[in-house]
Design brief:
GO terms for molecular function: DNA binding; DNA-binding transcription factor activity. The chain has about 270 residues and is α+β, with helices and mostly antiparallel strands. It folds into two domains: about 70 residues, Arc Repressor Mutant, subunit A; about 160 residues, 2-Layer Sandwich (Beta-Lactamase). It has nine helices and nine strands. Strands 6-5-4-9-8-7 form a six-stranded antiparallel beta sheet, with helices on both faces. A three-stranded antiparallel beta sheet has the order 1-3-2.
Length: about 270
């Protein structure tokens, strides 16, 4: 659970390599949250320097990154932050979510995660890293099986039984070889817990050392629901998950009219 030195680029054999590099670059900036020099980008993405130099020059010419000639580093430009405002409900909505995530991370000291369904997988859209030396570390943009993450399970809980059945069959056909086959009965049991309580707390699910408690955020402009979670080492989750759930359930993004039951967790 220690921070990794490099962010891994997915296998480009079935993707457009240049597009993967652009996306990985901006995910790296989001992860580091500071200006970066060419040499740092090359090291962390493990991409040839000539390719990164050409990429940064193109992005600079198109206005998506700014370059500091004194410090010789790059940073995403304000233009980039406005591209997705229409899809995320506008800048105010994006800022509200990020503000709450930062506040949660500052208040609790643990990693805060925002995720949504991406095809047949769960994708982490934003991560605020925890402050403890030993903490949950996940890269923004990374993908996980829905049924093996707390956020994925609460999102699955919004589907009907028939929809979940179709979803799992497609998942097994397309991703079972890489991620492992999902058992429908097991998935329905975990989804049932999330439906009964309005949240899900996983311990040792995606990683034997980590746990996450999660709830669903309201949908935004018809683009589907997102889930918000708080995660950390299993021992701290076991001790604090009820307190985290109360804090998570009380934030304004969820509203304050829906009560949740803190009756169960999953190991």
């Amino acid at each position: 659970m220690a921070p990794v030195k490099r962010l891994t680029i997915v296998n480009p054999s079935s993707t457009v390599k240049s597009a993967v590099r652009v996306l990985s670059l901006f995910e790296l900036f989001e992860y580091e949250k500071r200006p970066l020099r060419i040499s740092e980008i090359v090291d962390k993405l493990d991409v040839p320097q000539s390719s990164i130099s050409m990429l940064m020059r193109t992005l600079r010419e198109r206005g998506y990154v700014d370059f500091n000639a004194v410090s010789r580093d790059y940073i995403p430009s304000p233009r980039l932050s406005f591209l997705g405002d229409w899809a995320a409900g506008g800048a105010a909505n994006r800022e509200a979510i990020q503000t709450e995530m930062r506040r949660l991370a500052d208040e609790i000291g643990e990693t805060v995660l925002l995720g949504r369904q991406s095809g047949l997988l769960l994708q982490y859209l934003a991560i605020i890293q925890g402050q403890h030396p030993v903490r949950l570390v996940i890269s923004t943009g990374s993908l996980r099986p829905m049924h093996r993450t707390a956020i994925g399970i609460v999102l699955l809980s919004r589907m009907s039984d028939d929809e979940i059945g179709r979803f799992i069959r497609r998942y097994n056909a397309e991703h079972g070889k890489n991620y492992g086959i999902a058992g429908l009965d097991d998935v329905m049991n975990t989804v049932g817990e999330a439906r009964r309580t309005g949240y899900y707390c996983s311990m040792g699910m995606a990683s034997s050392h980590a746990g996450v408690v999660a709830r669903v955020l309201p949908s935004v402009r018809g683009h589907g629901e997102m889930g918000l979670g708080i995660g950390g080492p299993v021992e701290r989750v076991k001790t604090n998950w009820i307190q985290w759930l109360e804090i998570l359930s009380g934030i304004s993004l969820f509203g304050r009219d829906r009560k949740v039951s803190s009756s169960s967790t999953s190991q």
